[in-house]
């Protein structure tokens, strides 16, 4: 074989090796570069999560229910949202039972997150006497008006007591459950809460062992 | 080119020579930033002795969980006001009152350890020396002065623990040659413990060390994370650089 | 394919179709070819040629980190300092973004100064690249303004007093000074109004300007083609078949790959500083700036940030005593022009300008302008004199490699002066330091002002016709 041919062959072999090596290096560098870029993105994305200040402002809130009269409603702010505590009388609890057929989701099955396990019962609360719900309509976020008395109302001649949202007419019963055929899809959420004592509810924290 | 590099090097090193001439010798602060117990003690000293006048308004109580404390422990031992554990470490010193009492508002100390750094030493060194350099001075309104911070408005808050130091002038005799007569007499000022406090000198130094340790931590709580992430990032970049270098060499083989 | 339609895109795998669609509506492939795959750059780029792409990298870093900082920063005198500490402690990853931005600011100047120095070394400002140089100088001025505005934002003691001192320089300008200073500040002293407008300028005003100038800078470069360490024009020797410069290589992939490697190494150095010494001995994050701004208490040592210190030195060097030296210098310069330049108009203009200057420097009492104002003028001149370089350099060759010993010595002296002035600017004033600053100030200006003469008479070596290159390294 002539020297030129040998040289030619070596160059050919070199070129193939080069192309393979080149492809590997491009791939490897791209992967490393991708990992580096991803790692760099982490602090930037994380920086948009709630800061310590936001988390501190969203800390649990204590509500003192000692002054709450039977049949009365108390408003507490938690995470910038209104939380209602209603001290239900025996009659109101009966009215809740009577509303079972009129509400869309009587057992709070649709959105499990809206009802913590300790509130997944007939009256959607830890103690039947006290209802604790977030007072924001599950339709588009207005805050419903309390219509706790069971008397005829313009929006319902057979009103059993509960809440009426003025924005688009959604109705909720005295356990915060949404009525059938209304714009709002879900029951009012029950926030995580626990009883620190007979008179103090801590809103924002689950019960021990919950 | 090499001469220029040498010149550059000399110029870059020159600062070291000049800076050595700065005044105020500072003691090295013997802090160990990994000693969580020291940091816990330092936090305790801070809230007990300092927080009344000096707010730490950029620091939240719950950040102290970095020292392996639980929120309940913080609530029980370190919060003496009605503050919640998620609140900022503020105090209720009225600036107007402070001006009347001390001649100035006691500064917030959250980042004091960073602001007191200088060519003479780190911020920790300054604080460590400062807190051990108070001495009795009847000419001052508070009765106290400080060697590191002349005519400071702050009284010696920890005096009961350290005791009372005094600034005494001593005449030091330095021999200039073998001749006994040929001497130099220099006046040197020294801090001397005139009346001891409840702690020995060593105990007090350890207390100040813990407090300074805490102040250094408070000035930059993210420091430990910063260093840990840094090591990881540099390893990653090292790998990336090695690959990028290999890639460059491979392509540049083409070029004659 | 219809007549006159562009060729479809190939070589992009699954994206061929999409890219063809785009290319028919946007000059995508044309731009790719003109500026990357068929932009031929000299193959002998060395270490000094990394800094252009690094400058772009740092610009991107500053913009991205800046955007995320702006999400949390409060441009209010009462809240600014606290908001920075909020970012450092309470925003997840905030400390990292802040350190990236502060390290990036200093890194930007290191990179830009080295980038400019490359220009000085290889005559990159010479014809036909004068405009690239001028645009570059405008970028430099914008960068200094950007840094100045940005530095006020943390609202620490250095921020406040540094701004106060610099704006007071404008106050020194005769007649319009005081009004101008109030207009800049929006108040009688640096105050909340100042902070708000500096925020606007720093966050969007100057960055938009910078981006436009950087685009123009690269367009001007690509129009003419890059210079190289030998100062040889590679377009003069093209391959007759392809029309490509014989000494050129396609920017992509050769320089994209090389710049990627350069960027990786730069990021290693950057990260070492950022993660392990972000304060950098008080030069990148000044200790005094950890004290909230106090309009009633000036810190004992105010110094501008390190990248401004050379010019600050020049400012402080101009004392009452120095005015005599300056006046003599102006006279000597005019004499030099009179004796060596042939054109009568130039001679007369020089003499007239010199006379006016000397009149206002050392003339009758009521007309003399304060040394303080001359200091400001000299400082300004120190930053602006670079604009004149393309016309000051009369050497027959471009690159330092072929220039003579006088030019090499002058450049070395310039570097020493610049560094010395920079270092002196960080220190407090003493008599000997002022004297040193004055000597170095004269050397600094002499580098430029005497250049037409020493570059013309210097003994140069002939420039090669092709680049010198030992092979890839």
Short structural description:
The complex is a heterotrimer of chains A (210), B (256) and C (473). In chain A, 28% of the residues lie in helices and 18% in strands. Chain A has 210 residues and is α+β, with helices and mostly antiparallel strands.
Poorly predicted segments of chain A = 1-11
β-strand amount of chain A: 15-25%
Cα-to-Cα separation, first versus last residue of chain C: 46 Å
Say what the CATH topology of the largest domain in chain A is.
Rieske Iron-sulfur Protein
Distance separating the two termini of chain A: 85 Å
CATH architecture annotation name of the largest domain in chain C: Up-down Bundle
Quantity of strands of chain A, as a count: 9
Highest CATH level, the class of the largest domain in chain A: Mainly Beta
Structural class of chain C, please? mainly alpha
Helix content of chain A: 25-40%
Regions with little confidence, pLDDT below 50 for 5+ residues of chain C = none
Regarding quaternary structure, what we see is heterotrimer
Beta-strand proportion of chain C:
under 5%
The greatest inter-chain interface is formed by:
B-C, 51 and 45 residues
Q: Please compute the radius of gyration of chain A using only Cα atoms.
A: 31 Å
Task: Explain what this protein looks like in three dimensions.
The complex is a heterotrimer of chains A (210), B (256) and C (473). Chain A is of the alpha+beta class and 210 residues long. Chain A folds into 2 domains: 1-49; 55-203, Rieske Iron-sulfur Protein, CATH 2.102.10.10. Helices cover 28% and strands 18% of the residues of chain A. The radius of gyration of chain A is 31 Å and the shape is elongated. Chain A starts with a helix and ends in a 7-residue tail after the last strand. Chain B has a two-stranded antiparallel ribbon with strand order 1-2. A two-stranded antiparallel sheet of chain B has the order 3-4. A two-stranded antiparallel ribbon of chain B has the order 5-6. The radius of gyration of chain B is 25 Å and the shape is flat. By secondary structure, chain B is α+β, with helices and mostly antiparallel strands. Chain B has helices at residues 2-19, 36-50, 71-78, 95-102, 112-115, 123-131, 159-162, 201-219, 223-252; strands spanning 56-60, 88-89, 134-136, 144-146, 163-175, 183-196. In chain B, helix 2 (36-50) crosses helix 8. Chain C is an all-alpha fold. The two termini of chain C are 46 Å apart. Chain C has 2 domains: 26-230 and 239-282, Cytochrome Bc1 Complex, Chain C (Up-down Bundle), CATH 1.20.810.10; 306-457, no CATH class. In chain C, helix 6 packs across helix 7, helix 7 packs antiparallel against helix 8 and helix 12 (320-340) packs antiparallel against helix 13. Classes of the chains: A alpha+beta (210), B alpha+beta (256), C mainly alpha (473). Chains B and C meet through helix 1, strand 1, helix 5 and helix 9 of B and helix 4, helix 5, helix 10 and helix 16 of C.
